[in-house]
Amino acid sequence: MKKAPALQAFALFYLLFLYGPILLLPIFAFNDSKVVAFPLQGLTLAWFREMLADQNLRQAAWNSLIIALSVASLSTVLGVFAARASVRYRFPGKAPIMGMIMLPLVLPEMIVAMALLVVLLSVGIPLSLFTVIAGQVLICTPFAVAILTSAFQSLDRSLEEAAMDLGETQVSTFRLIVLPLVMPGIMSSFLICFTISFDEYIIAQFLGSGEPILSVYIFAQFKFPGKVPAMLALGTCLVLFSIILLGVAEYFRRRGIARVGGTNSGGIL
Amino acid sequence: MTAEKPTMIEFKDVHKYYGDYHALRGITGTIKAGEFFSLLGPSGCGKTTLLRTIAGFEGIDQGVIMIDGKNMANVAANVRPTNMVFQSYAIFPHMSVGENVGFGLRKEPGTREDKAKAVAEALEMVGLKGYGLRAAHALSGGQRQRVALARALILKPKVLLLDEPLSALDKKMREHMQVELIKLQRQVGITFILVTHDQEEALVMSDRIAVMFDGEIAQLADPETLYRRPATRKVADFIGTMNFIPATIVSEIGDEVKPGGGSAPRNADAALRRPEGPGAGNRRHHRRGDLLRRHDLL
Ligand SMILES: Nc1ncnc2c1ncn2[C@@H]1O[C@H](COP(=O)(O)OP(=O)(O)OP(=O)(O)O)[C@@H](O)[C@H]1O
Ligand SMILES: [Mg+2]
Prior knowledge:
By secondary structure, chain A is mostly helical. Chain A is built from 11 helices and no strands.
């Protein structure tokens, strides 16, 4: 293939632009200065200590974890039902129903958040972590449905019939045949919903009750220059956390695929 | 020969609709116990549909299906005394060969050792001795087919249903498996119902064959009868290569038919066998219709 220096330079620049800033996080997290600027001053763990000592930050991280786990679980379970129904069954109003489930994918989140807030306030439901979870489930479910639909579609229908033919009920067939075979899809869905929820800002801000939530909390801290280095330390931890999470998920996904002898199509990495 | 065997499956005027589409149009007939029975017909004629109504995967809209004397109307697929070998084999990819074969035993009574023994026996029967621990997805087409057979036979069903089990194999493997299937059927004595659109396969393997067109059984007979005395021109056309010679019947004594008329070739045999008509009332139709002469019979 002919080399195109301009395109190569563009690709390089693009990658640098994408990942360079992330590399700055750990650099400044260990930098012994309150000012986030070059030249670097010296090595310190002070910002990590400050981060760990921050009571509110710990609470926010905990809350975010609870929200993200709940949202990922709920969205994935709902996604399994919706995807299964849309792949397997024909029912009246299927197209509009599926369309409505997928709509939040293209709807501006602002609108969803505002509308939900208005409804919640007028009905008199107090804002809490639960309202955040409910709102984020609405946003995440379409992603879960999209991922799981392709997982269910690749499932040969005759596998289920074979299990029924050999004496299993609908329920035991689902448990013994369907579930294990769509497990890679379920894991992908869970992971993506977890990630979306974990750094989701708009709904967390609109529908939160003021209890600290990580994304909102971090943004607020950036108003105080003195707090920024500790936030960069936190960011470093989150990057590390994401890499580990992705690595583990990818390991299980590949193992799942190898076990059924399928070809590696798609996935996150 | 097959006359004294008891009836295993009986269809009485079975109709099936897919929405507006009339897929089975009054299927009537019987399949005898221990018989190797084939459903033969062109693509889309309803062979798979008929097989699936026996297995219980499709309900019927009218008529009765009896298996071993019991009406199957309200009997679900998972409790019918039938097992199926799917066209795609439907091997569970996340299980080993042994787990696949033993899947049907999961709910059966018996100790783990008994079941392991049954699995080993079933594998040996299909020539896959010692394959139990292999991953099912790493098998060849022919091996998958044997696994599917062992899996379906391990429950000792009254009827084994096979939906074009050989169509995915290459010619050599297919011929090999035809022989294997016949041997296996003799060995276990179970009623086999084979769906195929390959007339040669049906003629070679079956005790009796139902030829289907457009959701109807055109003729149900043994291979010999089907080959020598096709009931209609369509059946004859489907069963083998042949010539159709327009002719007029000048006399008819029993099976002896004397053709005449200008369009018959002069060197054609003087006497041809009249194709067996569906009934006396239809004779007129045959008198005026075409006479069949099979290439390789004359
Ligand atoms: N689930 C279904 N919904 C609607 N129509 C169907 C369905 N299954 C089959 N049909 C139609 O019923 C007819 C018979 O189908 P069937 O699968 O029984 O044919 P077949 O004889 O097995 O053909 P082939 O040799 O191609 O497998 C076909 O015209 C098919 O389009
Ligand atoms: Mg078919």
